[in-house]
């Protein structure tokens, strides 16, 4: 734990980044690259200089690992699923599946084979990713530091790229189903002819830009708010854990234990909210009310 | 907080996971759930039916019990009547038999009495003759007086 408190915090908030550094770039240790190189960033500045063509290896690794863990467990139960007396794992999986299924049925009344499994994946996956927040903040980074990795952020949902990756996928589904259900004309009409409409054709045309602005903002706000809500909650929670870790050792547990207990609520709630909003957005996309 | 390729990586992973979940996780679990639901529904229906059957069977058995009781009562009554008849008949028989026995016994007694009387008569005659002989100190011509003695004996 070298350096001042702000260095400690910044170190904890830096992803392990793998990306391309351009030719002629002066690295943190003073060496100058003679050609463009794909490498792990050694500092935060290097990571941001990599621009868009960089991967957060830690976020992606943990998120994919946790996703695989979820699928492995559920596939294990699904393969052995019987209609007789279920075992412990099957019981748990069935509870989750039924819970998600009920949530979907309450909100979404159409016929769609994608939404329920999508919601299950979102809920379990986001929950698992959030759950990493309860691992003590220094525990895994320290282990990886010993293994040679300079940076390690273990909670994927504190990375806005991860939450945006998911919410943009949901956004793509919203667009896809809107067009599929209402047709291109219907979707465009929904964006341009509401909420203000008129019987007068001239007025109608005049109102198109206004409607487009309003509807466009509300449409675009969906993925952004979805991503930033999850990210913000988890990022703030993580930050507080990091701040608590800066306290003297005897004081840490008096704060980190209550915060962790409170956080159990938050990580579950955020996973649930992400899932519910996905269902709501997709059911709105299916509604052909106008 | 850099926006970078991670978004696309995460989106691809998300897509693959959702497809896997849709193909290999959701359907088997749902199928098992629905099958169990159906099983439970069937089981409940069967238990309802069984309860109804049980009720019917109980009713039927009660009815049969009642009938059996009535039959038994009728049988008992009949048997009692028959028994009474038998008792009456046997009483009658016994009475007749007794009567017969009594009559027989009476006849026997009569007969014996007659015999005894005859024997007595004969003996008395002999005793009387002997007495008369002693009294007369003479032999009595039995044949001469037998007629008279027989007459005497007949009077006894």
Task: Describe this entry's structure for a reader.
The complex is a heterodimer of chains A (290) and B (156). With 290 residues, chain A is mainly alpha-helical. Chain A has helices at 5-12, 44-49, 57-79, 88-107, 115-131, 139-147, 160-192, 201-245, 249-286; strands at 17-21, 37-40, 54-56. Chain A starts with a helix and ends with a helix. The radius of gyration of chain A is 23 Å and the shape is globular. Chain A has 9 helices and 3 strands; from the N terminus they run H-E-E-H-E-H-H-H-H-H-H-H. Chain A has one domain (55-286). In chain A, strands 2-1-3 form a 3-stranded antiparallel beta sheet. Chain B has 156 residues and is mainly alpha-helical. Chain B has a domain at 49-155. In chain B, 93% of the residues lie in helices and 0% in strands. Chain B has helices at residues 6-136, 142-155. The model of chain B has no long low-confidence stretch (mean pLDDT 89). Chains A and B meet through strand 3, helix 3, helix 4, helix 5 and helix 7 of A and helix 1 of B. Chain A: Key component of the proton channel; it plays a direct role in the translocation of protons across the membrane. Chain A: This is ATP synthase subunit a. Chain A: One of its GO terms (biological process) is proton motive force-driven plasma membrane ATP synthesis. Chain A: Its main location: membrane. Chain A: GO terms for molecular function: proton-transporting ATP synthase activity, rotational mechanism.
Descriptive terms for the model:
A: 290 residues; three-stranded antiparallel beta sheet; 3 strands; 69% helix; B: 2 helices; proton-transporting ATP synthase activity, rotational mechanism (chain A); ATP synthase subunit a (chain A); ATP_synth_F0_asu (chain A)
């Amino acid at each position: 734990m070298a350096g001042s408190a702000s260095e400690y915090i910044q170190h904890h908030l830096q992803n392990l980044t793998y990306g391309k550094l351009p030719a002629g770039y002066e690295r943190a240790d003073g060496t100058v690259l003679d050609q463009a190189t794909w490498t792990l960033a050694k500092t935060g500045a290097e990571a941001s200089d990599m621009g868009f063509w960089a991967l957060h290896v830690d976020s992606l690794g943990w998120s994919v690992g946790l996703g695989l863990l979820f699928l492995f467990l559920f596939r294990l139960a699904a393969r052995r699923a019987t209609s007789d007396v279920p075992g412990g794992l099957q019981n748990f999986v069935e509870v989750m599946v039924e819970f998600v299924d009920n949530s979907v049925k309450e909100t979404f009344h159409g016929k769609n084979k994608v939404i329920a499994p999508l919601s299950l994946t979102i809920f379990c996956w986001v929950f698992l990713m959030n759950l990493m927040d309860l691992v003590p903040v220094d525990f895994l980074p320290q282990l990886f530091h010993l293994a040679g990795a300079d940076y390690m952020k273990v909670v994927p949902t504190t990375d806005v790229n991860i939450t945006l990756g998911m919410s943009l996928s949901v956004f793509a589904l919203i667009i896809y189903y809107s067009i599929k259900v209402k047709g291109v004309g219907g979707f465009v009409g929904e964006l341009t002819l509401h909420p203000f409409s008129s019987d007068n054709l001239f007025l109608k045309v005049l109102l198109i830009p206004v409607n487009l602005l309003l509807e466009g903002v509300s449409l675009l706000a969906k993925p952004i708010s979805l991503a930033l809500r999850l990210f913000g909650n988890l990022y703030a929670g993580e930050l507080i854990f990091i701040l608590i870790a800066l306290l003297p050792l005897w004081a840490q547990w008096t704060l980190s234990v209550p915060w962790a207990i409170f956080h159990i609520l938050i990580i579950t709630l955020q996973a649930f909210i992400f899932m519910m909003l996905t269902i709501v957005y997709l059911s709105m996309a299916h509604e052909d009310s106008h | 907080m850099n926006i970078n390729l991670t978004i696309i990586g995460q989106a691809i992973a998300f897509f693959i996971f959702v497809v896997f979940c849709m193909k290999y996780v959701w359907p088997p679990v749902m199928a098992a759930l629905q099958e169990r639901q159906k099983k439970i529904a069937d089981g409940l229906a069967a238990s309802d039916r069984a309860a109804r059957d049980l009720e019917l069977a109980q009713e039927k058995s009660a009815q049969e019990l009642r009938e059996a009781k009535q039959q038994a009562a009728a049988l008992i009554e009949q048997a009692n009547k028959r028994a009474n008849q038998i008792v009456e008949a046997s009483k009658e028989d016994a009475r007749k038999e007794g009567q017969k026995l009594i009559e027989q016994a009476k006849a026997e007694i009569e007969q014996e009495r007659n015999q005894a009387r005859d024997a007595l008569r004969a003996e008395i005659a002999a005793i009387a003759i002997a007495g008369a002989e002693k009294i007369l100190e003479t032999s009595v011509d039995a044949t001469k007086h037998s007629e008279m003695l027989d007459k005497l004996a007949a009077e006894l």
